[in-house]
Design a protein that fits this description.
Layout lengths: L2 H21 L8 H14 L3 E3 L5 E6 L9 E7 L26 H17 L7 E7 L8 H10 L5 E12 L2 E3 L3 E4 L1 E10 L3 E2 L10 H12 L1 H5 L6 E10 L5 E2 L2 E10 L2 H21 L3 E10 L2 E3 L1 H14 L3 E2 L12 H7 L1 E9 L21 H16 L1
Parallel strand pairs: 3-4, 3-5, 5-16, 6-15
Antiparallel strand pairs: 1-2, 2-4, 6-16, 7-14, 8-12, 8-13, 9-11, 10-12
């Protein structure tokens, strides 16, 4: 069956499912209705599945021609929404107050269900197995390892692939490139310890706030001063605490922030620089500083072989125009999948000025050009057939 036939057959269903999910968004780890709808749809398709913890669902389509040594592919979609009040006036506007699909996950889930329908149509051609992975809690980085661990318990898969609908890319375009595409993200906390006292006697106190402010400025300049200009890097501060009264020096002050990098080398180096800079600035002011780090989500690092095959599929199907697009400093816990199994994440453009779809991810007026959804499902199906066969 040709991909154009698959699109015509299932496009209406895919758009309807996207609108249903958009109308009923659920926050991370609360995707109860969403996961139930996914299970109901898989039941209708005759696709067996398992329900994992935290609302994750994994379906399995076994190719009719799969032998003992057939390949295995995982396709992943995330299901969670964001704590945002929707401002877009659409017929399928969110019915859950203060919750909205503002990142495209409703489209991701619908595309994977659509891919399930298409792959059932192609099942007699497939020489391997495909796992349909519906993941919870991407927005808080909590669901990926649930599915990764489950797949590993089955012996793993040969590749994992995903699509992220992307508002900075025009509709009709796709970007699937080798190498780092979305960033590592780690968290840090810096505490400066001084000596409290009255505001009238700074000579008897050690004010921790002044060195903390210097530290914030200094570490924010790490990307410009210490990292190669061609290497994306961000050090950002999101929270500061210190003191309770205007006329009292506190004993301590704290700052929290994040680090985004595109290599393991810079990931280590930035943490070391933050620690060294903090300790030295605090010491110069008579205070002390300690830095703590929490290692977070790994980068999405597309493997070369999977990207080469994806580009061949795109050339053959002509579903989208290819665009190199730049790496994105946002993080994505699909990084855990490619870290374990290899594979790729592709960006599909959803920006369409003529339709008023001009708002970025996480904006209350965010929207999707639905014309790309069935094509995204068809890309999943076409890649799966090419990879397994």
């Amino acid at each position: 069956m040709q991909v154009c036939d698959l699109i015509k057959k299932h496009e209406e269903y895919i758009v309807a499912m996207r609108r249903d999910f958009h109308r009923h968004p659920e926050l991370s780890f609360q995707e109860v209705r969403t996961s139930q709808v996914v299970c109901d749809e898989l039941d209708k398709m005759g696709i067996p599945y398992v329900r994992l913890e935290k609302n994750c669902v994994v379906g399995l389509i076994k190719g009719d021609q799969a032998g003992e040594n057939g390949k295995k592919l995982a396709i992943r979609a995330d299901m969670d929404a964001l704590p945002i009040t929707e401002e877009a006036e659409v017929p399928f506007k969110s019915q859950n107050d203060g919750v909205m699909h503002a990142c495209g996950h409703d489209g991701h889930t619908a595309m994977l269900l659509g891919a399930g329908k298409m792959l059932k149509d192609l099942q007699n051609e497939l020489k391997g197995d495909v796992y349909l992975c519906f993941q919870s809690a991407e927005e808080v980085g909590g669901g990926a390892m649930i599915i990764v661990d489950y797949l590993k318990s089955l012996g793993g898969v040969d590749q994992a692939i995903a699509i992220h609908l992307w508002a900075d890319l025009d509709s009709g375009f796709i970007s699937v490139e080798e190498g780092a595409r979305m960033a590592n993200v780690d968290q840090f906390m810096i505490e400066v310890l001084g000596r409290g006292g009255h505001g009238s006697r700074p000579d008897l106190s050690i004010d921790p706030i002044k060195p903390l402010c210097q530290i914030v400025t200094a570490i924010s300049s790490i990307p410009a001063n210490y990292i190669e200009p061609t290497e994306p890097c961000v050090v950002h501060v999101g929270r500061i605490e210190g003191g309770a009264m205007y006329n009292v020096f506190p004993d301590k002050a704290k700052v929290w922030g994040g680090i985004r990098t595109f290599s393991e080398k810079n990931r280590r180096r930035v943490s070391e620089l933050i620690r060294t800079i903090s300790e030295n600035i605090a010491k110069s002011c008579g205070a002390t500083a300690r830095a703590e780090f929490q290692r977070g989500i790994p980068l999405v690092n597309n493997s070369g072989d999977s990207v080469a095959m994806a580009k061949n599929v795109l050339l053959e199907t002509e579903l989208f125009q290819m665009d190199k697009f730049y790496p994105v400093c946002a993080s994505e816990d699909f990084g855990f999948f490619v870290e374990q199994f290899g594979g790729f994440m592709a960006f599909i453009g959803i920006r369409n000025e003529k339709k008023g779809l001009i708002y970025t991810q996480h904006h209350p007026k965010f929207g999707i050009d639905e014309d790309v959804l069935a094509k995204g499902s068809a890309f999943f199906a076409a890649y799966t057939r090419a990879f397994l066969n």
